[in-house]
Every structure is written in structure tokens, then in C-alpha cells.
Amino acid sequence: MFPVAQALRAGPGAMCLACGVDLEGDPTAPCPSCGTPTVLSPDSVPSTPMLGTLHPRRAGLRKRPAMLVGRGPNECTLLLHNGKLLTVAPADLPPAVPVEPGVPRSHSPVGPILRHADAVTRGASLPWTDAQLLQYAFGALGALPWARRPAALDVLALGRPDLLGGCGLSPTETTWLGLVHAARHGDHTGVVAAVAALPPDRYRRKIAVVTALLGQLRLVPGAAERLAPALRAFEDAEPLAAISLRALGISECTPRQRLDDQTVRAGTFPVPVEIVQLLGGLDTAAVAPRARALLGTRGRLAMLYTATEPDPEPAVLIDLRGVPLAVLDDLVDAGKLTDLTAASAARSAVDKAYLTARLAPERLSDAQVEDVGHRDEAIRRRMLSGDTEPAPEDAERPLALHVAAAALLRRRRPQDLVTEHVLPAHREVARRLADMITRVDAGEEPAALLTEPVLADRSTWLALVGLFGAERLRGASRELIGEYSEFFEWLDLIAAREHLYLADWQRATDAARRCLELATAEAVRDEAQNLLACGLHNLGDHQSALSELEHAIEGTYSVALLANIGVVAAHLDPELAARHLARIVREGPTIAMRVNAVRQAVATWQSDGTKIWAGDAGERRTLPTVLREPLRSIVVESIDLEDFRMVASALATYDGTWFAAPNSLRGSPHRNTLEARYYVAHAAEDMFGSVIEVLGTVKDWDSAPEWLVAARDNLVHQTVDFLLEHIDDPDNVAGTVAFSLVTKVRGLSERDQVVLAFLAVATVTYHLTEQDAEISDNVIALYRRYAGRQTDMDEKLRAATEHLAELCVRRLALNLAFARQRELAALTDPYNTAIDILARVQRGTPLWFQVRRQVAEVVEACQRTKAQLRPWLRELESADARDMIMDFLENCGEFELKAQRVLGS
Amino acid sequence: MVKRNPYLLLGVDYGCAPDAARRSFARAARRVRRSGTDRISTEDLTWALHEIQGEADPFNEVSTFRVPADPEVFTPSGSGMFAPAPVRLPRRTETGQSDVDYVTDGFAEDVELLLAEMLPHVVRFDYGYQTAEGTEI
Any residues with CB less than 8 A from the CB of A384 and at least 6 apart, and which? Predict the structure, then answer.
């Protein structure tokens, strides 16, 4: 460690610690100013035993601690546990408690008492207060003046500078000791206070302490003001004082001076070699990376700024926010700053535009180009967009003249070309191209005139095609093709595209294949395969086209290629098309594109139609797995309602079990819409019933969405068609659907209502008749309701539904007749039994009454039958049915008559 | 039956803007006329223009073949006579003393911070008492 005093110009000469004057000569001699010795303790000090040892002595039944607080030649003074003093002869002194190992040796005889006092202050268990003990310690120093300084060191060793005042030293010496103690323990406020309390022109060493701690002292509030007198007092004598005055802002200081001051400080104190390196010069080559790593942002900026070798790498790592624009410009000009992001971080829009123009003008927006006034960039952009007319104010700029010269060549006017107007770097190309145009115009073939300089400049390629056409440029020498294969494969690509534009599919595929023979770059090969696929697709070879596209999309993802796969796949068989389109549904970059692929896939896959009554649910097709999963995922995304309806329709039809499950649509924003309810119903196990329930919720069909009206009408018409074809089938499912449609769904046309009602009645009645079951009153009521409207129907509708009405009458009448027959047949055996009993039983008995009721039931049944069936006879047109019912009624009448007689007898 | 491709008919990149398609109409007509082909008629071109102008967002479609798939391939990259390289704007600032001071001051401040960190660890603060042996405590 470096003694701080050695930093002073005056050297580490002794200093009177009592009054602070410099001492010259013998450092151990007393101060000539105040006479105080400089030594810690004089040689002549008699050997003094240590006080403060503990001597436990018996007091009553147990031993109590006692402390040695005084010692003479013939007597020892013990401080007893109760605070009283006891004088004993040295021989009678009880044995001392051994000092614990590790306790530092005291400088003064009272050191142990001070240590005990400090321990009590900190909570140790002794029978005395700290004040009592300090009183004995400091009291003892009165008789031992030489021990005051050692006692002060003991106090400081205990970390108790607050006790220094009790040691009996001069106030300034006490302050000085406090200053050093504060410096040692990082108490910078204490350092400032102590320096300010010392006489300004004394205690020179304080200047070294302040300079060593400048960085910390600057942060103490009011430090500059309080330290100023002391520093000014030594300003002329000690360079460190002048440095401190500048560092604390008391004296003015330029940045250069500030840097020089740090150099002085670093040269004065033993700092690490890295800091010396840093201050030795700012050339990065001379500074080790380890040293550079110590610096902060601005330090590294300075290193970069002054470096002689351009190395843009560090600039990326430096925070350049707030750095003056001129400094950045210096770095740019020196090639040390090339990264735009690093340069323009947190800059204003104006600065950003300027720095972009300085570093990467091609990244400026058009508006920025104008704002920043970068005329050459504006001219360049106009040229690239095909505008070769410069703005009037730019006409004489070299780049504008170059643009005009290039335009002359494009327009095939080499005779007007002024070569000097072309930028020097491009003059050779311009000359060659002008020569080529002239010779082609004279009849030579352009392919033979191609030269290396022209082809090496890739910006000429499009111009060459524009001047001579792609086909005429083919046929160059083998050497040239070998050397500039990129140009010739590109040429074939252009040719293939041109042929596609002219719908010349065969020549397009030929050119694309030629390109593939030469090309090695993946992007070019992919495009060539795309053009080849386009040609093949249009030639009808979809399978080969698909194969080319699949090869092209291997390795590099391309939305366009993916879409083209979808286009071609749509022409393959539905399963295969679905597989390819499903990939777009999975991988498409936008929801809209994915939905379009879904639409195409579903359309392709269900191209054989969707007949509702084509079969029962068990025969429904299911979506292929490859298509099913993408559809399931897209139906819950934020797609348009119309798209949702399309996807939901497909899922409800082909993936109904999943679609109808309660949580399938939980994530969809459309889960509570009419569309969702309708298609979930469509997917339900009881599809017809559920759908009709949904349709039944619509109260105003005039304002209903078109798709729902269409769905309703489709269901109605397909139901009608099916029933008409299956009118004699005993199955009543369709009839029940028709019944529900006409009774629950509003808004049907009159014709649809009548036809549905009659078909429902006819089918359901026929089914029940086949089941030996009687129709309900609802069925008859439905028939009556629509039969009653026949008179109001227009002639055409009445004629169209007449035969259905007749069928209803016949089936209803027969159903009722059969029902009554079954009823009377069931009464016949009980009736015969009753007749037998009446013949034997005495009149008026309970049994007699019981069997008469049985006979009466027959009478009532016959009368009910006649009353029910006779009206139908008037409506029945079928002679067979009427005869059958009339025979039945006749039998019924006879049966009733017999029964009446029995009751009348 | 392969669907007709309006972009191919007009000889424009797939998805080009309606305005660009309109501008290319005359060029396409010239191309067809020069080629002497009878595969494409003026009516076809008119239909194609109408289709393109009516298309909402071609880049979401999957029903029309896209040519080119990668337009960049058709435009050779690199600078040259017909595509001069961008030129950096000459500087518009002058470096003054304040700029140099900014750099110097930043460096000095960094070193000052380093010294503040290190000095307390390399110096010894003595009380200044001389011992009998001539050393200081």
C-alpha cells in the first residue's frame, strides 16, 4: 500500500500532529512550533503494567468480577462489582482471568479498560456501565500523559472516534485523527468535516487525502465550499491542491486540463498499469483490450475517435446517443462508423434522415430524400423508376448528365452519346454498348457482339433485352456462356416468361428447361420450375406441373409457389387436391389466403354435390384427415362471418361429430351467431329436428339473411322432392320433417305449405296405418286447415295439389276405418259374453247392470264410428275405399241394431 | 379446363396494381401484334384488364397461377451504368473545439471514475505518529 503522504510534492516529511506545521530535520524531534513530540510515546516511559484485567473474587457465597483500575508499587485498586473500590496488596490480588485469544494488543495501559467499556456499550454483560469504565480509563491517563496518543490509537482501533476527546490530546490532533479514521473507513462526509475543521494552512497531508478521495468527496453536498479554504491555502505549493480545486469545480477547468489532471493523479498514485496505458495516449493500438474494457461509453468513444486505424466494430458497441453530429461525421468520414442503427439511436427525425443520407442513402424514404436535400439520391431514384428527365435545378449535376447519357443508349441513339457525360466508372461499358447498338443496326447479330465488360455490369441486362430481345441474345460463344452463365440462364428465364405472356406454352416450357440446364442458384431454379409448371399446367399436364412446383418449394418457403400448388392441385382428383390445398390452409401467410384455400379445397372435395336426402348419417362422407385438421383450426379464428359460414357448412356436413361437440366453437368469435347455431344444428344427430328448431326461431323471414332463406327453401324443396318420390314408403321420417316444417317454420310460400302439409299428412297417416296405429287429431286438423284453403287457392295450385288432397282423404279415411274396425273387433268378445250372461242373470242385479254397460259400449262405438266415417265418405273419390268403408258401416249399423235390441228387451 | 390468367395475358407480374395493368395494356397489345399469334385477341386483353381491376386482393387468392413466384429474380441485382450505386451525402457539419472537448471531457470523466474506484484501494492513510523505530503508524 502506498502511504498517501508520499503523493505530496513536499514529500512524506514529518508533520506535527498537535499543531499541523511541517517538520524538517529529525522526524522524531519535538515540534519547534508547539514543542510537542512527534513520537507515539517517548523512550523514557517506565514500564507500566496493563490495567483492566479481571480478577474474580469471592463476595458472599459466590465469586464476583472485579477490575484492576489502578496500580502503584505497593497497592492495587480493584473496581468491585458494586462500583466500590478496594485496595489490596499486589500479593493479595486474586488471579486474573486470562485474556481471550485473538484480542488485539493494546497500545496504552488503559487499552483493556477501554475495550471493556466498548463491550458494555455494545451489550456485553459486566456489572459496570460504560461511563464508569471510561471514567477510570481517562482518569488514569491524567497520571500517564505519555499514554494519551497510544490510548487514542486504542480508541480508534475499537472504531470509536467519538471517544477521542477523552484522551486528552489537542483539538486539532483529535480532528486530524478523526480525518484519517474517516478516510480509512469510507466516511467521506466525515473527511470533509474534518478537513474543514482543521486550520487551512496546517496539516499538509490532508491535501493528499482529499486528492485520493476526490471522486467520492465530490458527491458530498457542500464539499467544494467547505474544502476550498484548505485547498487554496496549498494551491501554490501542492499541485494536488490545484487539481482538487479544479476537480471540485472551485477553479475553472478545460476538458484538456481535466484530462491532464487525471494524468497527474494517475502518475502520483500507484494505479494499475491499464489506467496508465489509457492515459498514455488514445491510440487504440497502444491500449490493451483489457484497459479499453475498463472504460465507459464516452471513454470508448474517445478511443474510437482518436484511433488511427478504422475499425467500425467498436462503434456498434458504443452508445452514441447525445454525441455531437460533427463527431459522428468525423467517425463516418474516417470509416469508423458504418452502422446506421448505432448512429441514429434516439436521434431526432431530422438527424436520423441526415445520418441515413450519410451512411445508407438507399434507405431514405422519398420524403426524407427531399427533406435532407440529397439531390444525387433523388436523381438516382428517378432513374431507377424509369424517369430520366432531371429536375431543372439538377440538370447540370454529373449524375443527371449520366442518367441522360444512359437514356440515350436505351433509346438506341448511340450517335448522340457524349461519353464524358457518363460517370467515369461506367464509360467503358457505355462505349461498348454504343458500339454494339451501332453494329446491330448495321446488320450484325447482337449475340455475337456481347462482351465481357457489358455482361459484367448486371444493370445492362434488362437494357440488352429491351434493345435486342431475349431470343436474339442467345447464341453467344461457348466461352462467354460459360463465363457469364448467370446472364444466359436469366435470359432463358426472361424468354420463358415472354412465351407465357403470349400463351405459347410449349416454347415457354422449352425455355424454362434450358434455364434449368444451366442454373445452379436456388432462386433461379425455383423460378424456372415455376414457369415450367405454368406451361405444363396450361398444356394440361397437371401432374408434372405439380411435381415441378413441389421440387421448387423444397428448401425455400414461398407463398407464391404454395399458392400455385393449390391452383394446379385443384385440377387433380379431389382427395389429392384436398391434400395440397390443406397445406395452404396450414401454412398460408394470411387468414384470407387460408380461407380461400379452404373454399377451393371444400369446393373441389364436395364437387359431387350435397344431397341432404342422399342417405342416412352413417353413409355421409367424412373429411380426409389432412383437410379436417386445418378446417377445425381455421373455423375458430377471426375470419369473416361469410367465411365462417362456408367453413362451418363443410365441417357440419363432413365432420359433424366434432363440429357439434360443445367446445368445438368455443374459441370462435362467431360462436353465438345464427350461423353457428344453424350449422351446429345441422351437425346434430337429430339434424332435421335441430335445424327446424333453429328455423322456427326466425320470426321475420323478410329480414332474414339470404343464406338462411336459401337453406330453408333447400330443405323444403328437397323434402318435398323426396316425399314425392317416396310417397308409398312406410317410413315416416321425411313426413315428420314435413309436418314440423309446415307447423313450426314461418314464412313458407302458400304452395310449399300446402304441399308440405298434404305430404306430411299422407306419409304420416300411411306410416301409422301400416303400424296399426290411429292418427292423432293434429294430423286431421292439419289436413283440414289446408284442405279448407283449397277454395281460395289459385287454379294452378289447386290442380297441382288435388291428387295429394285426395290421397290424404283416402289414407285418413282408411286409417280411421281400420282403427274403428280394430276397436269394434276388440268389443265383440266381451259383447258375446255379456249376451250370455244377460240370458241367465236376474234383472236388477249388479252383474246385470255391468254386462248391460258392456253392450251399451258397443252401441256407443258403432254410433261414434258412423259419425266419424260418414263425413269422409262424401270426400272419398276412390270407389274401392268408399265401398270398403260403406260395407264396414253397414256391418256396424247391424251390430248397433242388435245391441240396441238387447238393451231394449 | 385451366382458368384464364389475366396477368399472363397482360404480361404483368401477378398481383400488379390496376394502374400498372392499365398502363401495360398498350404494351401487351403491341407484343401480341408483333408476335403474330392468334392465341390472344384484343378482347382477351380487355377481359384481363377488367379482371385485374376488379380483383380485391390477389395475394390472398389461390385460384390463379402466379407468375413470377419471385419477381426479384427477373431484376438483376447490383449497381452499374443503368443503376448507379447510391452516393453518400457529403458532410454538412464542421468539427469545432466544443466537439473535441466533448470527446476529451468524456474520456477524462471515465478515467476520473476509474481513479475514484481504485485509489481508496491502493493508498494507505497513516495517522503520522513516529515510532521509536522511525516508522509511521
Answer: B83
Q: What is the pLDDT of residues A318-327, one digit of tens each?
A: 888 889 999 9
Give the DSSP H or E segment for A840: helix A795-840
Binary contact (B89, A430; C-beta < 8 A): no
Contact flag B120-A27 (C-beta cutoff 8 Å): no
Cβ atoms A96, A71 nearer than 8 A? no
Stated pTM of the model:
0.60
**Residue pLDDT, tens place only, B18-40:** 998 998 999 899 888 888 888 88
CA distance B28 to B8: 10
* CA separation for the pair B59, B53 (Å, rounded): 14
Q: Give the three-state DSSP class for A282.
A: coil
Alpha carbon of A828 to those of A817, A823, A862: distances in Å?
16, 9, 12
Contact at CB, A593 and B60, closer than 8 angstroms: yes
In chain A, the N- to C-terminal Cα span, in Å, equals 149
Please name the residues between 315 and 344 in chain A that touch chain B, using a CB distance below 8 Å: 323-327, 329-330, 332-333
Q: Is B61 on the interface with A (CB under 8 A)?
A: yes
Q: pLDDT per residue over A635-653, tens digit each? A: 999 998 998 998 998 899 8
C-beta atoms of B65 and A186 within 8 A? no
Task: Report CB contact under 8 Å: A567, B105.
Answer: no
Q: Best of A375, A534, A604 to disrupt the B interface by mutation (most B CBs within 10 Å)?
A: A534
From A184, A270, A459, residue closest to B83, measured CB to CB? A459
* Strands A2-3, B123-124: pairing kind: parallel
What's the CA gap between A53 and A116, in Å, rounded? 10
**CA distances, B129 to each of A13, A173, B132 (Å):** 12, 11, 10
Beta bridge partners of A68: A78
A606, pLDDT greater than 80: no
Report CA torsion sign: A772, A777, A779, A785.
positive
Asked whether residue A850 carries a pLDDT value surpassing 70, the answer given is yes
Q: What ranges in A570-686 are assigned the alpha helix state H?
A: 574-587, 591-605, 625-634, 641-654, 656-660, 674-683
Size of interface A-B (CB pairs under 8 A): 342
Our CA-based measurement puts residue B23 at a distance from the nearest CA of chain A, in whole angstroms, of 14
Q: Please check whether residue A69 is in contact with residue A78, taking contact to mean a CB–CB distance below 8 angstroms.
A: yes
A455's grid cell:
455482361
* pLDDT tens string A488-532: 999 999 999 999 998 999 999 999 999 999 898 899 999 999 999
Neighbours of B56 (CB within 10 A): 7
**Rounded CA separation B103/B111 (Å):** 13
pLDDT confidence tier of residue A285, bands split at 50, 70 and 90? low
CB count in 10 Å sphere of residue A67: 24
Q: Read off the C-alpha cell for A117.
A: 467499556
Closest residue to A493, CB basis, from B74, B118, B129: B74
